[in-house]
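[09:14] KT: can someone run the structure on this one? pasting the chain below
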Amino acid sequence: MKPRVYYSRQEMFKLNRDRLLERGVTIEDIAEIAFMQQARYNKNISMRVCIESVEKILSYRDIFHLVQLSIEIDRLAEEGGFRSPIQEIIRADLGMFGIDEVFGLTIAQLYGTIGQTNFGDIDVNKPGIVKRLNEDGKKGDCCHTFLDDVVGAIAAAASTRVAQIISEEEARKDPHFEPMQLPLEWKEEN
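[09:31] RB: done, structure tokens below
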């Protein structure tokens, strides 16, 4: 029997959600960071939109691959599954390693320059679950070298998506706004 490699968006979301839960991360944990980041700029955001944004992002194929790979790399490092010197570098979450940030930037890039800027803010300030993952990973029992960056990047992407939703709502309030029929694929992607 041929191994399965293709999954629907619903399946990818569920697999990502479940794998994150195994590592102690909830959708609400990620959405909380997006909410805190956007609340600085807009007092009318809702936690519900932040949760929906995280859920949407977790259903994308590239994000699916990055989440699954990141968690597996961290798990293998916990089990001593790599050869030296990369085993020690990943376990130490060496600041000069940077590959974990590349994963984060790749996710944040989904939402352009602002997504990357939001990721930089989260990566530096380590709010909420990102801080806990980073600290727990440095204690030695578990490894979150990749997961803390991936979770922060998902929060950054969700934050940027929320800002885009708010911008779209504001644009529709403009008296010069002229609604137009969008292609069906655009409606499905939002």
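[09:33] KT: thanks! The chain has one domain: 9-171.
[09:34] RB: yep, looked fine to me
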